[in-house]
Amino acid sequence: MNVLYISISGNTRSFVQRLQHIAEEENKKDSNAFIIHAKEIDDNTPEEAENEPFFACVPTYLEGGNGLDNGDQEILTESLRDYIEFQDNPELCLGVIGSGNKNFNEQYCLTAKQYASQFNVPFLADFELRGTDNEIRSIYQLLCNKWQAATQ
Question: What InterPro entries does the record point to (predicted)?
Answer without folding.
Answer: Flavoprotein-like_sf, RNR_NrdI
